[in-house]
Amino acid sequence: MRAFVVTGPGSAEVREVPDLTPPEGEVVVDVERVGLCGTDVEFFTGHMAYLADGNAWYPMRLGHEWCGVVSALGPGVDLGWLGRRVTGDTMLGCGRCRLCASGRQHVCASRQEIGIRQGRPGALAERLAVPRAGPARTAGRADLGGGRAGRTRRQRHARGAGRHG
Predict the structure, then answer these.
(1) Where does 25-164 show beta strands of DSSP type E?
(2) Residue 6: CATH number of its domain
């Protein structure tokens, strides 16, 4: 499988990486879209604090804003997830501490962050493995073309309503 890998500050390449087999409780997603943001730029330039404090290291695969379709299931995952269009939470808590138990996995000391923290590979690849608890189902027929993803049909039409007539 191909993936975009940042190998060091200001250095990256497309590499062949091992294909994914989902472990227990995880799914593999065929990535359709990935967003890039300032966090990714900080990693690429070498200025991200996680690099200095040891929570991230090179080489790394960025991509924490993503969507795609579930294409493979690990043991213990309901068959109903197969073929679902999903997006996901970047923050993956340990699931065992009091913070995770109270719904605050985003501040769990042992958390992984997809494409960001503790070596969890991101979505700048053909496929991404994530825990079943991570992805959220999206609309069955998401509009992924023309930069219109995220807006409903009504929002797109309302935006241009004042221009007609």
Answers:
(1) 26-35, 65-73, 85-88, 91-92, 112-113, 127-131, 135-137
(2) 3.90.180.10
